[in-house]
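Hey, can you fold this one?
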Amino acid sequence: MRRALAGPWVSILLTLLLLTGLSHPAWAHAILMESTPKLHATVTGPDVAIRLRFNVRIDGSRSRLHLLAPDGSLHTLALARQSTPDILQSQATGLKPGAYELQWQVLASDGHISSGKVAFNVN
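Sure. Predicted structure:
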């Protein structure tokens, strides 16, 4: 009789542990919270400050920023030393007027890689 009652409680406990374990890793993925330049913004060149703020700590040494120029060329941007663990910064220099796409790839504190793009214009 005692064994029969334990069965449902074990099942409930295992279900709760499974649901909790599956939902936790998604919380730590890096999500872009704020960018400079802002998405679809028009900024004044030729030099443009780049700043990306994320929802979690990111590993700056394993993160990458690339800039796709209007002519289709792709440039790797050097990252500045992180001022805080959730921010990446760089400087794009010598930009000519046109449409640009900032491409980012970061390693979050949970070990997952996230990536995205920020389109902006230079006048």
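Confidence is low (pLDDT under 50) at residues 16-26. Let me know if you want another pass with a different chain boundary.
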